[in-house]
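REQUEST ID: PR-0412
SUBMITTED BY: lab tech R.K.
PRIORITY: routine
TASK: structure prediction, single protein chain
INPUT:
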Amino acid sequence: MPNRLPARLPRLTPLRTVTGPTDHVVVVGAGLGGLSAAMRLVAAGRTVTVVERGSLPGGRAGRLDLVGDGGTYRFDTGPIVLTMPGLVEDCFDALGERMADWITLRPVEPLYRAFYADGSRLDVHAEVPAMAAEIERVIGAHEAKGYLRYVDFVSRLYRYEMRDFIDRNYDLLNVVTPDLARIAALGGLRRLAPKVRQYLKDPRTERVFSFQAMYAGMSPYDALAIYGVISYMDSVAGVFVPEGGMHALPTAMAAAAERHGTTFRYDTEVARVELAGDRATAVITTDGERIACDAVVLNPDLPVAYRDLLGVEPRRVRRLRYSPSCHLLLAGSRATYDHIAHHNIHFGDSWRSVFEDLIDRRRLMSDPSILVTNTTREDSSLAPAGRQIYYVLFPTPNLDAGVDWRREGPRYRDEVLKVLEDRGYTGFGDAIEVEHDLTPLDWQAMGLERGTPFAAAHTLPQTGPFRPGNRWGQNVVFTGSGTRPGVGVPPVLISGRLAAERITGPDRRYRSKAVTW
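STATUS: complete
OUTPUT:
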C-alpha cells in the first residue's frame, strides 16, 4: 500500500521559547552542551557569559595530566568515542568558522576490535563492504548477508529518528509526525535484542551491534529497538579521534566562542540561580558575586541543577531511574600490546548476565565485558616517548546499589588488573608508571547524580518526549545528557543547539549535516 501520509504533519503548536528580554545569557558550565549553546547564542547576537567551576572547559570531557619518570601523560577523563563529526562542524558553522581551522578529526580504523571468550575476534569497520567481508571471513556468508540487511534497517531508523525526534525541539502536542508511524512499522518500538537477532544470528555480531544500548543505560533485552540508531552512529557512520585527545574538542569550541565575544569565567562556581518567582534574574557564585542576566542555560547534570541551583525538585525528576556507572582506570604504561587496536571490546563468556548483574541485581559483574582504549595508538604525543596510555572502563552499578566504594575501590582495582591479565594484557599491572582510578564516588563528587556519568537511563518513560524537557519557568533552559535528546556526545552537542533555540527561536540552517550525515 502506498504511503499516503504527508511529508510532515503541520506543527500543532509553535515552539515554546523563553519569555522577556534575552540580551545577556549566562551559561552555567562549559561542558560540551554548554559550549554548543554558547556558540549558537553568541552567533545570534546575544551577550554570553560562561561560568565554569573548573580551570578548563570540557566538563565530563576533562583532562588530567600526570607526570611519570619519562615525562607527562595527558589523559582524557570522560567520553573517548567521538561519532557524527558533522555535529561538531555545525557548532563552528554557526560562528561562520571552519572546523578544520580549529581542530583536526581523524577516522579510527578499525572502529573497534572485538575479542570473544572462544578466542575469536572481529574488527568493526565503518565501510559496509569491508565489514561484510570481515563478517564473512570470521563467521560466514549468511551472517554477512544478515549484516547488510541490518545496515539498511538502522540507516532508515536513523533518518526517521534524527529528523523528528533527535534533531529538533518539540513539545508534547507536536510530537506526532509521519516518521513516528514509519519507526513503528520498521519495528523500532520492539525490544532491541530480538530485533537485532532478526538480522544477525551469531552471538558475536549480535553483541557488537547491540552493546551500544549500554550508552543509553539499558540492557539490549529491555531497550527499545530505536536505540539501534546508536550502532548506526558509530558502527556505520564511523568513529573519530581529535588530534590532541578528546579534550581538544571542548578546547577548540571554547576558543572559537571566545573569539566571537563569549566571556569565560573559569574557577568560578555557581551556588544558586537567583529567582523572582519562576524567572531567573542572576546567578550567585560561591564567593557571593551576583552576575545579572536575562536568561540562564544550565549545563550541570539536570537533577543536580534543579535541586542545587534552582532549589526545586519536580516529582518526575525525583523519580528518575539512572544508568549504571563505571570504574575507570587511566594508566600510563611502559607496556605495548601488538594484538589490540585503538578501541577494544573484550566480551565475557556470558552476555545477558552482564546486564542482570548491573541493572537487575545491582552488583559488580561476575563475568565482565569491558572497553580498553589505547589512546596513544592514534596520538603518540599524549605520552612520553616509548610510553602508552590505556583507558580501561569496567561498567559497574550506580550508587543506588549501595556498594561501599571507599572500601571496595582498592580491591576492585586489583580485580581490574587480574581481568586484564586474563584477557591478554600480560604484565599490565607491573608496567604501570602512573595511574588514576575513578569510581562512582568520584563521579558523584563531580556533580553527577547517583555517581553515574551516563545520566538518567533511556527507559520508555524517560525516552523522547518523556525525558525531562529543556525549559523551566520563564527563562531557564537545560542542556546536557539529562535532558533531550539524551546521552552521548552527539545528543549532547544537539542539546546545546536546542537549548539556544529555546532562547533565540528555531534556526534551520544548522540541521543539514546532523540529518544527512
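NOTES: Residues 125-236 form one domain.
REVIEWED BY: pending
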